[in-house]
Write a structure and sequence with these properties.
The chain is of the alpha+beta class. It is built from 1 helix and 8 strands, in the order αββββββββ. The longest helix has 52 residues.
Length: 171
Amino acid sequence: MSSHPESGFTLVELVTVVAVAAVLTAIALPSFQGTMRSNRVATSTNEVLASLAFARSEAIRSTRFSSVCGSQAGTACDGEWTQGWLVFADRDGDGQLESNDTVLRFGQGNPKLSVGNPSGDVVTFDARGRRLSNADQVVVLQPDECGEQPLRRTLTINASGQIRVQRGDCE
């Protein structure tokens, strides 16, 4: 016979631990999901901002036109900003990706995020970093599910090429 007492958990102790873990998970999960949505929006907003800034600086550096457009696969401009966006050296400044234009960067979209350019226009910068369009252009980002958080981001690009980010409630 062993002089060591039996060690381990009783069934009551195990059920108590599982119940406490379930309660803590139920409390923490909604907060964690909100944090994840917020981080997705922040990350994608920064990626779109970086692509727009890159296109503008590339236009100034090369003294040629540079454009950003919505693209599903990174091979053509199709206006689908949710799938991704494409930065390209636009040799003639027409906002169309053609065979003589050079693709500079492709940003992959997030499937849990909606990204859109309501006007559907390509954002084109000239050699001085200004946009070709006189009217402000807008890119809008928001998660598929917002919860109670104001997670909508509206990027407004003015005629001089400056970008302003505005927070708002989801629609």
